[in-house]
Amino acid sequence: MKRLHVHVSVEDIAHSVGFYSALFAARPSVVKPDYAKWMLEDPRVNFAISTRGREPGLDHLGIQVENTGELHEVYARLREAGGNVIEQGETACCYAKSEKAWTDDPAGIAWETFHTTGESTTYGDGTGENEARVAHEKTSACGAPQAAPKQSACCDR
C-alpha cells in the first residue's frame, strides 16, 4: 500500500512539532534536532518537517511505497505522465536509506518516489538529490524568475 509524503521546510523544529502534534493528535515517530516525521494512518501520510531545506513552506511531495515492485510501478506511471524522471538510486537521506527518483509536476512542484530500506545515522548531505532533481530556473506565477532554491530537504523513510 502506498502512502502520500509531504515535506515542509520550517524555521523552528520545536514550535512546529508542537503545532503538528496538536493538529494530528499524535507525536512524531522520529525527532532529530533538524527533522521530525509523523507516519500517520488516518490520513495515510508520511508528513515530515525540517530546517534543512528551502525557505519555510512546501518543499516537496511524494509517494512512499512498501516494496521494489511498487516503486517500479510508480516509476512507470511517472514516465507515462510525461515528466522528466530522474532516478537517484540508493541513497541516505532524512535519517533513512532508500531508493528513489524525482520529477517536477506541471506546476513545478518536486515529487519524490521512494522505497525505504533501512535507517541511517545521518541526515544525508543532499548531494545525490541535488544531482538527481531537475535543475532548472522556475518562474513565479507573475512571470518573474525566482531565485534558485537552497539545498532541498530530501526526505523519506
Q: In angstroms, what separates the terminal alpha carbons?
A: 14 Å
What can be said about the biggest beta sheet?
8 strands, mixed
In spatial order, strands of the major sheet run 2-3-4-1-5-8-7-6
Rounded to the nearest angstrom, the radius of gyration is 15 Å
Q: In which range does the helix fraction lie? A: 10-25%
Description:
The chain is an alpha+beta fold and 157 residues long. The chain has helices at residues 13-24, 68-81, 127-132; strands at residues 3-9, 30-32, 35-41, 44-50, 57-65, 86-93, 96-104, 110-119. An 8-stranded mixed beta sheet has the order 2-3-4-1-5-8-7-6. Strand 6 (86-93) and strand 7 (96-104) form a beta hairpin. 32% of the residues are buried.
Question: How would you sum up this structure in a few lines?
Answer:
By secondary structure, the chain is of the alpha+beta class. The chain has helices spanning 13-24, 68-81, 127-132, and strands spanning 3-9, 30-32, 35-41, 44-50, 57-65, 86-93, 96-104, 110-119.
Keywords, separated by commas or semicolons:
157 residues; alpha+beta; 8-stranded mixed sheet
Sequence-ordered SSE layout with sheet pairings:
Elements: E1 3-9, H1 13-24, E2 30-32, E3 35-41, E4 44-50, E5 57-65, H2 68-81, E6 86-93, E7 96-104, E8 110-119, H3 127-132
Parallel strand pairs: 1-4, 5-8
Antiparallel strand pairs: 1-5, 2-3, 3-4, 6-7, 7-8
